[in-house]
Amino acid sequence: xxxxxxxxxxxxxxxxxxxxxxxxxxxxxxxxxxxxxxxxxxxxxxxxxxxx
Length: 52
Known about the structure:
Largest sheet: none
Radius of gyration: 11 Å
Strand content: under 5%
Distance between the termini: 11 Å
Helix content: 40-55%
Mean pLDDT: 92
Shape: globular
Number of strands: 0
Low-confidence stretches: none
């Protein structure tokens, strides 16, 4: 899963990408929201971002 595959949430995706790019990512992040939202998808995309 990549950020480009997640529809919407451009501000959130940009903030996560910039946090990694500028080495300013918190030691823990909480992805919270209703069931079926993009929370799990965003968390998986962030984990994938480190691998690529």
